Amino acid sequence: MIKKLLVFATFCSLLLTSLHSFGQESSTKVDMAEVMRSNGKIYVVVAVIAIIFIGLVIFLITIDRKVSRLEKQMDETK
Amino acid sequence: MQNFFKIQLAFGLEWWKFLAIALVLYALIGGLLIDVPALPILHETIRNLYYHVTQWFGMMIILFVSVWHSIRYLSNFKMHHDFVAAEAANIGIYMGILGIVTGSVWAKFTWGAWWVSDAKLNGAAITLLIYFAYLILRNSMDEEQKRARVAAVYNIFAFVMLIIFLMVLPRLTDSLHPGNGGNPGFGGYDLDNTMKLIFYPAVIGWTLLGVWLMQVCLRIRTLNHKLLIKQFK
């Protein structure tokens, strides 16, 4: 169990570290959200989105577990 | 192979469910923070590639699962395949609706209109209508075996129409939508390697999330079915 979790954690951290492995030079004059990025506030939005997504996922997990419990009950009453 | 997808990682949940969470989180966080190519008209909306386009990719994969199980049903007449086909179609259509609504928002702020009469857009709308008809057809029949058989045959027709309306016809005419009008690829922007690094994991993540929702719906449907059988015993 712990071993599995460790493997999963390693996988996640590998995914996240891959984010840092590439940068990009901006050589064009097209308007992008540079101000938004430079003052750092975009991270707040990303955090809010991530929290909402995690909240929905936790809800989905509880539903999943409830269905598992019902399946167990159904099999036991046969 | 089937057991491989049933290996539980934690909380009694299969490993691919955690993969789904990780990949979608990666798409949400990475997709918003990583630098994207600076292009006129598109600006930051190019990031919609990770959210709008992935819904359509997920929809196609899940609707393929649906039609695959419809074919399986027609070859061995096991109710399980009909259930999978129905729930996969449900989730696929749901992702399609999300895709068309997000596409409409994207179009408003890049092309200047919520909807344009375009081969790709109209094709997407027709595809969704064909699949709505699939749901209505299912609900119009009470007898289980008959419903399963008619729905399976219609589902094959619907999937062929999806391929024609989303993949073939838009490529034969000019279209505002990228990847059409004789161009089989994504057009210019998918060639950017940093975007691919988010885009492909995002496709897998959103698809797996759809499969997860589908699996929960399927289990509830199976439970209902078992309960019904028990009541008549």
Please describe what this structure looks like.
- The complex is a heterodimer of chains A (78) and B (233).
- Chain A is mostly helical.
- Chain A has a domain at 37-78.
- Chain A is built from 3 helices and no strands.
- The longest helix of chain A has 35 residues, at 42-76.
- The two termini of chain A are 31 Å apart.
- The relative contact order of chain A is 0.05.
- Chain B is an all-alpha fold.
- Chain B has helices at 15-33, 52-76, 79-110, 119-139, 144-172, 193-232; strands at 8-10, 13-14.
- In chain B, strand 1 and strand 2 (13-14) form a beta hairpin.
- The longest helix of chain B has 40 residues, at 193-232.
- At the A-B interface, helix 1 and helix 3 of A face helix 1 and helix 6 of B.
Write the layout of secondary structure elements.
The complex is a heterodimer of chains A (78) and B (233).
Chain A: H1 2-17, H2 34-38, H3 42-76
Chain B: E1 8-10, E2 13-14, H1 15-33, H2 52-76, H3 79-110, H4 119-139, H5 144-172, H6 193-232
Antiparallel strand pairs in B: 1-2
Parts with pLDDT < 50 across at least 5 consecutive residues of chain B: none
Number of helices of chain A: 3
Report the radius of gyration of chain A as a whole number of Å. Answer: 21 Å
Largest interface: A-B, 38 and 39 residues
Rg of chain B computed from alpha carbons, rounded to a whole number of angstroms: 19 Å
* Terminal residue distance of chain B: 35 Å
Strand segment tally of chain B: 2
Summarize this structure briefly:
The complex is a heterodimer of chains A (78) and B (233). Chain A has 78 residues and is mainly α.
